[in-house]
Amino acid sequence: MNISSEKRRTIGIDARFYGPLGKGLGRYTQEIVDNVIALSKDKLVNYVIFLSPDNFDEFACPNSNVRKELIKSRWYTLAEQLEVPYKWYRARIDLMHFPHFNVPFIKPGAYVVTIHDLILTKFPTHRASTLHPIIYWLKDKAYRLIISSAVRRAKKIITVSEFTKSDLMKQFKVSQTKIVVTYEGVANLAKGNDSLFVAKLDNKKTLALYNIHGPFLLYVGNAYPHKNLEGLIVAFAKLRSAHPDLRLVLVGKEDYFYNRVKEIAHSNNLWQKENHNSPVVFTGYVPDVDLEALFQEATLYIFPSLYEGFGLPPLEAMAHNCPVISSNRASMPEILGEAALYFNPEKKEDIIRVVESALNDENKRRHLIDLGSKQVKKYSWWECARITSEIYDQILRNKK
């Protein structure tokens, strides 16, 4: 950042999602915070990092120009609509960055917002929620109001793909000059210090720990309806007739949605609670050190999602030399390029066709691995943070 004025400026980042508790959003927030701070060395800028009670003690201020503030209110609550602006104003922030859409209506100053996707406007059904229909309807209306306000009043909007940028322009009539695309990263390959890359494991012991036997397809992520795990289960049931030894391993923290997928697998005779040799394996949450082994040992990584703003797990699979087959929807062709085989996620016959074409051709899988190792090098958290830092710089210069 090249701020010419002698005056030190203060940038705030709403980092309540920082770390594992925020899942994919937590990874994005952590990488942005850590890397923009590293980029700020010897520059006339201070950072105030706003954290939640869950991650406040975990974040250590690395530089003298960084301090942290506690926000007690949870995200998506009425309380945050009051507490966040108060803390924002009190900290004398010159520019605020919200890594998610939940920008408060009360706006003490200039801000940047990151919009990852518009999933809640694309799949606005009660089927995607455990809430009572009336409560869900009210929350849906509140979401649309908040995101509309957030993008309209932001100085700049960051998106993680050209696909999401296009979605925003169409749905909220946002000018393309207001939106900047910053692709997410897979890992800091230059430093080589990401936990997904440095762990040295006994892969066979890890597979045994999760009762994984034989060749398997791997999926990592949540089980929300748009992830299309129900469609994957139905396709896998038919695929098993030709590949009886094949397993489907689903990695994700157990919740209401995963329990529903278990019911679907059970009804297709693919999973039983007490059967450790079931064709479909539900691992629950898997730490990074174990997840590395699953990526490395999987025959294929499969990503059947109907909608993604970016889609990090397939890239993580590529980074671990796992061949990828993916849905051809939303941002996936943009992000994965020619390094994946694609299928129509709403046609089980097409899913089966693409899986079998890769299962039956080892040379094709090796080719995908080669292409994937090149594709992931296009994505760097450092570059993502560098562009983000330049956005801060531009806005602060224009404020003078």
3D architecture notes:
With 400 residues, this protein is an alpha/beta fold. The protein has 2 domains: 9-185 and 380-398, Rossmann fold, CATH 3.40.50; 195-378, Glycogen Phosphorylase B (Rossmann fold, 3-Layer(aba) Sandwich), CATH 3.40.50. Helix content is 42%, strand content 15%. It contains 15 helices and 13 strands. The protein has helices at 23-39, 78-90, 119-122, 133-153, 162-172, 195-198, 203-209, 229-239, 256-267, 288-297, 312-319, 332-336, 348-359, 362-375, 381-398, and strands at residues 9-14, 45-51, 66-70, 95-98, 111-115, 156-159, 179-181, 216-220, 247-251, 280-284, 300-303, 324-327, 340-343. The strands form 2 sheets. Strands 3-2-1-4-5-6-7 form a 7-stranded parallel beta sheet, sandwiched between helices. The protein has a 6-stranded parallel beta sheet with strand order 10-9-8-11-12-13, sandwiched between helices. Strand 8, helix 8 and strand 9 (247-251) form a beta-alpha-beta unit. Helix 8 crosses helix 13 (348-359). The protein is globular, with a radius of gyration of 22 Å. The relative contact order is 0.12. Residues 1-5 and 188-199 have low confidence and may be disordered.
Total domain count: 2
Say what oligomer this is.
single chain
Widest sheet, order of strands: 3-2-1-4-5-6-7
Query: What does the overall shape look like?
Result: globular
Low-confidence region ranges: 1-5, 188-199
Q: In whole angstroms, how far apart are the ends?
A: 15 Å
Biggest pleated-sheet summary: 7 strands, parallel
Number of strands: 13
Residue share in β-strands: 15-25%
Structural class by SSE content: alpha/beta
CATH-scheme architecture of the largest domain: 3-Layer(aba) Sandwich
Task: Specify Rg, calculated over alpha carbons.
Answer: 22 Å
